[in-house]
Design goal:
This protein has 129 residues and is α+β, with helices and mostly antiparallel strands. It is built from three helices and four strands; from the N terminus they run αβαβββα. It has a four-stranded antiparallel beta sheet, sandwiched between helices. The termini are far apart.
């Protein structure tokens, strides 16, 4: 593999990692805004418990008659977020709204790209009447 190809692969990996960190930070912010509380890791038992949970995924647990949602964050805060059904639903709504906003941003960016002329192939408008 050539030197320039290796540099390209390294840059692609760096950009992918940066995108993952940004997405994880965004998730952490939405968790807090949705009402999730934080338990920090301050003992070896808690470190072991954090490692036992899947990172950056929700786990549903039942405590008595109440459902609790856990979200392990071993990379940003070394903590576990926990919340009830209301916090989980609020987070899901925020995540849905964020996905819509991201798709709208991508569409707007594509439409502003001067090299992309989708309507030009159809001739002058208004042809949709």
């Amino acid at each position: 593999m050539s030197k320039s190809a290796l540099v390209g692969v390294a840059l692609a990996a760096a950009f992918s990692l940066a995108a993952c960190v940004t997405a994880t930070e965004n998730t952490v912010n939405m968790l807090a805004a949705a009402g999730f509380k934080v338990k920090t890791v301050d003992s070896q038992d808690k470190v072991n418990a954090l490692k036992a949970l899947p990172p950056h995924k929700f786990v549903m647990k039942t405590q008595g008659s109440q459902v609790i949602y856990l979200y392990a964050d071993p990379t940003i805060c070394q903590c576990i977020y926990y919340g009830d059904q209301n916090a989980y639903q609020a987070y899901q709504q925020m995540a849905f709204q964020q996905r819509i906003a991201d798709k709208n941003l991508i569409a707007a960016t594509m439409m502003q790209d001067t090299g992309w002329n989708y309507w030009g192939a159809w001739g002058p408008g208004p042809w949709w009447y």
